[in-house]
Amino acid sequence: MTILEKARAGEITAEMIYVAEKEGIDPELIRQGVAAGEIVILMSSRPNINPVAVGKGLFTKVSASVGMYEVDDTIAGEMAKIDQAVKAKADTLMDLSIRGPIDTMRETVLSTVDRPVGTLPLYQTLAMAQEKYGSALDMTADDMFAMMEKHAADGVSFLALHCGTTMDVINRAKEEGRIDPLVSYGGSHLIGWMVHNHCENPFFTQYDRVLEICKKYDVVLSFADGMRPGCIADSLDGAQVHELVILGGLVKKARAAGVQVMVKGPGHVPLDQIETTVQLQKQLCGGAPYFVFGCLPTDSGAGMDHVTGAIGGAIAAYYGADFLCYVTPAEHIGMPSADDVYLGVMASRIAAHAGDVGKGHPAAIAWDLEMSHARRELNWGRQMELAIDTETATKVWKDRSTNFESECSMCGDFCAMKIVGKYLRDENQEARN
User: Fold this and answer.
1) Where are the alpha helices (DSSP H) in 65-206?
2) Which stretch is the leader sequence (predicted)?
3) Cis ω on the peptide bond leading into residue 163 (within 30° of 0)?
4) CB within 8 A of 410, min separation 6: which ones?
């Protein structure tokens, strides 16, 4: 039985108990969420990898993507980025390598980290086909499924697949007159293969085969969105919504087969459409966990898109997105450095926390309240501990403060907390007496 089938049968598994403790809730609530399909547990056959739960009522999670893209990229270089992602407390990782020793890279990641790892098997299938046939256009459906199973067998926790990118959706996109027709790397290559070979998407036509592999290895199926908008002007166009409608039907089939499933989303979404985007996914996909890229509410944040993503990510999380894929300062203009990865994770973690506070998550609210008390009491050590980015906060404080016990450098002797705080507390005490 898969973990979804066990949840439906009323069984509370070790993984449910583990994630419940991390979330600070009753394991029965986790079981109910998994059974309903509103929570997924990302887990692995690897003993070094600890499960992570994603979904309704839980902390909003953050994922960091790395991988060998450039000709001179190395495993060591990508592992340095992963070190920074782990240091910044990303909840999960994605290895999206498209070239080089991809198998070795994946094995290195899976055997090193302690958190779930996701992949997009099509990337390696394309690289393999190029080497084997001389062109990625000559890859076969069997090649795609063989690679998918290889990744699942290796212990990957979630597999990203473009199951809803059909010929009807492609034709719809062609009619839409999009400004940025395709921005999904995997989606664009799959579509190119479909058009060249005049055939339908195998992940759609042979969906039962997809589910068979996912069930065999009890891996979470993560629907990638081939039609995610690449600019805010294309947001919520017919092609994007058409694909989402298809994914909603595939979600139902996955659950019926005992396979956990979540849905990946955009992308570039203007502020006024973020609520609609999240609610539409939740409605069409039966409350399946929503894994959003950003969201990016403006196209003009190049060089600072970790900030852009944090703005949109906070709003998306507030309206019900469950999982944020980080965005780095290098988004749209280059590959991220290790420092970019750290900044991207931190920005997304701030967004996730802000969304959780807005949603009324008790632990998130308690965290901010404790920080407020620490500030009132000028307890600098506790403030540093409670900061989302403790390291950066501590560095700034020590570099720019002259008195480490009474006030910060911004106000100095005129510290409002110091001057007025005692007066207000004394007044309040007298009033209570």
Assistant:
1) 75-87, 102-112, 121-133, 141-154, 167-176, 185-197, 202-205
2) none
3) no
4) none
Q: What is the pLDDT of residues 200-244, one digit of tens each?
A: 999 999 999 999 999 999 999 999 999 999 999 999 999 999 999
Taking every pair of C-alpha atoms in the chain, what is the biggest distance, in angstroms? 85
Which of these, 267, 325, 341, lies nearest to 291 by C-alpha position? Answer: 325
Pull the structure tokens for residue 155. 């212990």
Instruction: For residues 394 and 386, give the distance between their C-alpha atoms in angstroms, rounded to a whole number.
Output: 11
Please compute the mean of the pLDDT values over residues 396-425 and round it to a whole number: 64
How far, CA to CA in Å, does 61 sit from each of 54, 78, 190, 397, 407? Answer: 7, 22, 28, 28, 34
Cβ-based neighbours of 241, under 8 Å, separated by 6 or more: 280
**Please, are residues 326 and 309 in contact by the beta-carbon 8 Å criterion?**
yes
Length of the chain: 433
Determine the distance from the C-alpha atom of residue 308 to the mean position of all C-alpha atoms in its chain, rounded to a whole number: 16
Bridge partners (DSSP) of residue 223 are 161, 263
Q: Exposed, middle or buried: residue 379 (CB in 10 Å: 0-12, 13-18, 19+)?
A: middle
- Bridge partners for 48 per DSSP: none
Mean pLDDT, the chain, rounded, equals 93
Q: Rounded to whole angstroms, how far apart are CA atoms 64 and 344?
A: 8
Give φ, ψ of 293 to 5 degrees.
-95, 90
For 176, 190, 227, 257, the CA distances from 172, given in Å and listed in that order, are 6, 16, 10, 30
